[in-house]
Amino acid sequence: MTTATLITCLFVFVLASFVGFEVINKVPPTLHTPLMSGANAISGIAVLGAILVSGSLGWSVSIILGLIAVVLATINVIGGFLVTDRMLVMFKK
Amino acid sequence: MTLSTFLPTGIQLSYLVAASLFIIGLKQLGSPATARRGNQLAAVGMFLAVVATLLEQQVLNYPMILGGIVVGGVIGAIAAYRVAMTAMPQMVGIFNGLGGAASALVAIAEFWRLLSTGDPLSLTSLVTIILGILIGGVTLTGSLIAFGKLQGVLPGAPFLFPLQQPLNALLVIGFLVGSVFFCLEPSNFPIFIGLIVASLILGVAVVIPIGGGDMPVVISLLNSYSGLAAAAAGFVVNNNMLIIAGALVGASGIILTNIMCKAMNRSIFNVLFAGFGSETSTGAASAAGSNAQQTVKSIDSEEGAMMLGYARSVVIVPGYGMAVAQAQHTVKELVDQLESMGVDVKYAIHPVAGRMPGHMNVLLAEANVPYPQLCDMDDINPQFEQTDVALIIGANDVVNPAARHDKSSPIYGMPILEVDKAKHAIVIKRGMGTGFSGVQNELFFQDKTLMLFGSAKDVVGQLASEVKQL
């Protein structure tokens, strides 16, 4: 990674953080848990990185570690979205 | 335009759509009417991002990767459908840990791949790899400790030992020094392993001194870390999608952490380092001493049922005790009885009641309580003066009036539910034990307060059947 790409990544990171603060501010307490578990599912985005590092054919330490990461992150993604949905179905007027 | 030139562009555009879906999804998660659709939009975004990544040219290992996705998906789905709503704090805790572990593994695997190519590694790559391992590792072990405390595998009280903070500082300094050596000599295997181990120990060290009642803060903070870990992994593999999604989660976790800290009138620094609730402070001791001569008034469920049944307005204040006893359905039965007799019933929810943000709201939603009946602290506090009976079920520190006036109390300044302003307060409690803060609650000794001893579920069940006979 060059310094130029690092700077681009930093720009994306900082601007996305500001978007996050603006979008999520003022969530009613009723939705604190679903917001947290929904956000938690999104943090399973690490699955993309896991797919990229385990993508080549053959066997190596990185591929094995990557595949373990695929499993862990997918548990996080699928479990997170489903349990959030299960909770939100219960919230009614 | 051939496929090989279109594909990278298409993948990046899909990422852009997926990132937008995450943002719209999170926005909609902020309002009860649209929350479910918001979660579904975010899930669609995730699906799109995963499919796009599978189309990357370097991804060839389809059988293994799809196998991993199926295995993870099945485990995740089973966990999501099996978990009891009372176990949600642990569930979110363990999921945070898995996300952190995956991010750390991505950083480690990418380092390994770069090293095996034999090319020299740039300083920026090494720094991002160190950050990925550190945040991911701390998130993993911190979440496992939080899980252990919430599940009751580990003691919930703060775990403190002599020289704890100097030792932690030493660990951090050791990590920094190790990082410098690692950057100078990336192929030095023992240093690399040392950094991984140090991050894992650091995660344990951060969470063990924090007590059960501070868990809402810890869970939100670890939620934030799991996002930051994903963003760090995004820096490592140079992928904008990871960075954006990670930053969004990091921001949402920090917002929740802030809300929780404010609701306890404590700084995040105080929560992380003070070992709160481990010992009774001098203020608490003197308060307990002056209360020793005072007596409490205790009633039985029949008297309690009379007071509730003939009241005009009742406010229910649930706390962690209701969650432990799994009494939410019984509470709903009692409230149904009271409402059929024409009593006006509301629920007052303190922001840090329970063990995670919104814990009480989820439990009561599970028991079919409509969410407009749940009142926030600021809405309900002015109404207590017109309330006939405040029924406190397993809550303690969040209703202690000492927070308003006793400057020596460790909970002084914390916003509370002002149940002492109601005409009567009935407190359902197992015994006279103190709450998480270790402070005796002066509410229990007031004239208007009546104690109803027993497990929340049994007592509320008795109240419901007594009210039925009125």
Explain the overall architecture.
The complex is a heterodimer of chains A (93) and B (470). With 93 residues, chain A is mostly helical. Helices cover 77% and strands 0% of the residues of chain A. In chain A, helix 3 (46-53) packs antiparallel against helix 4 (61-90). The radius of gyration of chain A is 17 Å and the shape is flat. Chain A starts with a helix and ends with a helix. The model of chain A has no long low-confidence stretch (mean pLDDT 93). Chain B has helices at 3-28, 35-54, 62-82, 88-117, 123-151, 164-184, 189-207, 215-237, 240-263, 268-273, 282-291, 301-309, 320-325, 328-340, 359-366, 377-380, 402-405, 456-469, and strands at 297-298, 313-318, 344-349, 374-376, 389-393, 424-429, 449-453. Chain B has a seven-stranded parallel beta sheet. In chain B, helix 15 links the parallel strand 3 (344-349) and strand 4. The model of chain B is unreliable at 280-291 (pLDDT under 50).
Keywords:
heterodimer; A: 93 residues; mainly alpha; 4 helices; B: 470 residues; alpha/beta; 7 strands
Topology:
The complex is a heterodimer of chains A (93) and B (470).
Chain A: H1 3-24, H2 32-43, H3 46-53, H4 61-90
Chain B: H1 3-28, H2 35-54, H3 62-82, H4 88-117, H5 123-151, H6 164-184, H7 189-207, H8 215-237, H9 240-263, H10 268-273, H11 282-291, E1 297-298, H12 301-309, E2 313-318, H13 320-325, H14 328-340, E3 344-349, H15 359-366, E4 374-376, H16 377-380, E5 389-393, H17 402-405, E6 424-429, E7 449-453, H18 456-469
Parallel strand pairs in B: 1-7, 2-3, 2-5, 3-4, 5-6, 6-7
Helix pairs in contact in B: 1-2, 1-9, 4-5, 4-8, 5-7, 5-8, 6-7, 8-9, 12-18, 14-18
